[in-house]
Amino acid sequence: MPYVLGLDIGNTGTAATVARRRGDAWARPEVVTLGGRSAVVPSVLHLAPDGSLRVGEPATDDRGGTTRDFVRRVGDDVPLLLGGEPCPPETLVAELAAWVIHRVSAHEGAFAEAVVLSHPAGWGPHRRDLLHRALWALDLRNVTLLPRTVTVAESHAARGFPGTTAAVYALGGNTFEAALVRRNARGRYETFGLPQGLEWLGGTDFDEALAEHVRAALGREFAGGEAHPALHGLLAECDRVKRELTIATETDVLLTLPSGPVRVPVTRAQFEDLIRPAVRATVDLLAQTVHSAGLTPAQLDGVLLTGGSARIPLVTELLAAAFPVPVEVEPDPQLTAATGAALAACQVVSPRPRRPAPAPATATASVGAAAPAVPARRHAEPDHPRHGEPPARPPVRITPLNLPKASRLALARGRVRDREG
């Protein structure tokens, strides 16, 4: 069955969704399970003992043979080192994209008719060009790059968000980005204003804040050197607790020390007190982004959330206090950008008829509106201009995706495989 692929490669996690053609329409995107039972696989590449390049966290700590955080390094002149070999960050992103595309194509029995990959809204032409070149080097030539702002708006619009102008609040694993999106004269979403971000602030910082609370609560038990190996998985446990506290009001951090199992009780109020300064900084930056575009918060139609930590109740609480407009968050905001990317990919293959943008005061229509079906019209102009410049898109006739050729890194290290081999 023909399908398109939406791909979101974040600094800490990668997600993908597919939308399948059914007759003359596209069905709503479905999540692809990438890592075991999880819909999200860590954005980590590592060298296996046999020299092959694999995706996901390694079973043992291997800093020299593992690389992460390469997405935000795209555009840096200094390459990353993987197993002693210099690797441009954009090449690593392309390798991860190729792994996802192959994994999905193996499951679907064919390559996607089109692929849309979301990228940070702050990327300029230089970074986009670098990634395009890296993708083309792997013969991935039907991949369209779109700002995450646009793909997030697509996903929210498909779920019924009717707005014309919105702020996008993207809280990732270790980065935060604030940006604006609006419907242009052709009735399609585009990024405007100056996107702003905070490096090294995200969900992992919340995990670390909770871990510090646990260490303080354990006191002498943690002070003993023999306890440190037992606390190796503390951050992973804090991540679990963080997610649980989005629904529960209290829970326990569970650890096994040399003296036996221990429970450190944590309430949602305690956790929110730990992370409040960081969350407030993100809300302030979003407000600053809105003001820098010459708008006030009241002039927005909504705030659209994305990212794994966007479900934390404190985030919605502080945003609602600062923005007198609807604050929209999907059931699993970690998948929002990938879902919107698949919706945008449907438009690459089957563009909608153009329509004028509605007036802000009476906005009722939206890109990717609630009806899941999109008329399958070929040979029309694709949607979503990239920051006012002609987008790097496939030709009018969509050609099948060829099997990617191995990069120099893959040739040297073997076939790209997942962590389960």
UniProtKB/TrEMBL annotation:
<dbReference type="InterPro" id="IPR013126">
    <property type="entry name" value="Hsp_70_fam"/>
</dbReference>
<protein>
    <submittedName>
        <fullName>Hsp70 family protein</fullName>
    </submittedName>
</protein>
<feature type="region of interest" description="Disordered">
    <location>
        <begin position="351"/>
        <end position="421"/>
    </location>
</feature>
<dbReference type="Pfam" id="PF00012">
    <property type="entry name" value="HSP70"/>
</dbReference>
<keyword id="KW-0067">ATP-binding</keyword>
<keyword id="KW-0547">Nucleotide-binding</keyword>
<keyword id="KW-0143">Chaperone</keyword>
<dbReference type="InterPro" id="IPR043129">
    <property type="entry name" value="ATPase_NBD"/>
</dbReference>
<feature type="compositionally biased region" description="Low complexity">
    <location>
        <begin position="360"/>
        <end position="375"/>
    </location>
</feature>
<feature type="compositionally biased region" description="Basic and acidic residues">
    <location>
        <begin position="378"/>
        <end position="390"/>
    </location>
</feature>
